[in-house]
Write a structure and sequence with these properties.
single chain, 8 helices, alpha/beta, 7 strands, 5-stranded parallel sheet, elongated, Rossmann fold
Amino acid sequence: MERSGKGIKILKIFLIAFGVFLLLWYLAPLVSGIFNIGNAAGITASAVIILCGAFIDKMPEKLRIAVMCVIIAAVVLFVSLFAYMARYMNYNSIPESPAETVIVLGCKVDGSRPSLQLRNRCEVAAEFLKEKPYAVAVLSGGQGPDEDISEAQCMKNVLVDMGIDKSRLYLEESSTNTRENLENSYEIIKANSLPQSVLVVTNEYHECRAMLICRDIGLDLFSSRSCKTSTYCFLTFLTRDMMGVVKELIFLILYFSGKHFCFPVYFFLDLAE
C-alpha cells in the first residue's frame, strides 16, 4: 500500500512537471505574437495534463488507469505522427538537384517586412538560384488582412535585394493556404512553360504536407529544401501541421479511387503562415 502511494506521488509529480514543460513551450511563441491552432491545442492539452496530475491521487483507481491510458495513447499518436513526418523532412534534398523551378511557399509578412521564417525561406531559395543561374522561382503567397503587401511581393523584394534578377521571379499572389500555394503555382508553371521539375522551399515541419499535396495535384516534386525553425516555436508549428497531415491521411483513405489518391478538402491549418 505504501509502495503504491509512492508510485502515485511520483506519477503526480511527473504529470505536473511534463504538463508545465509543454505549457511553457507552447506559450513561448506568444512572446513573438505567434498564436494559431497549434499552440491553442497545445496549451489546452498541457492544461489537461497538469489538472490530471494535480488530482491523480484523488481519483478512483479505475478512473486513474483510464486517464493514464488516454495520456499514453495521445503521446504514442503524437510520436508516431512525428516519425511519419520526419521521413519527409529534407525530402530527397541533395546538393545537386536537377530541379529547374523552385516554388517558395509564403509565410507571414510583418507590414511590408518578411517574418523570420519567410526571410529564412528566401535565403534558401536565393542559395539555390545562385547555384543554378538558369533556374527560375515561383513565389507563392497572397496578402493577409494585417499585411501591407502580398507574401509573394515581399519575397520578390528580398530576393532582388539578395542579387536575384527579377526576370527569374514569378509571383503567385492569390493563395491563402498551402494547397492553393501549390495548385496556383503549378498553373503559373504550366502557363509560362516553365520547367516542371520542381524543388519546394519551406520549413521542415511543413515538408510532409507539401509533398502530399504535390503528389495529389500531379506536380513533379523532385526534392525540397527546408529552413530550420526556431526551437521556441517549432512545437507549435509542428502541432498545427500534424493536424493538416492527419486530415490528408484521412481523406487519402476515404477517397482512394483506383490509381489515385484524392484530397478534395482544403486545409484549415494555414492560419498564421
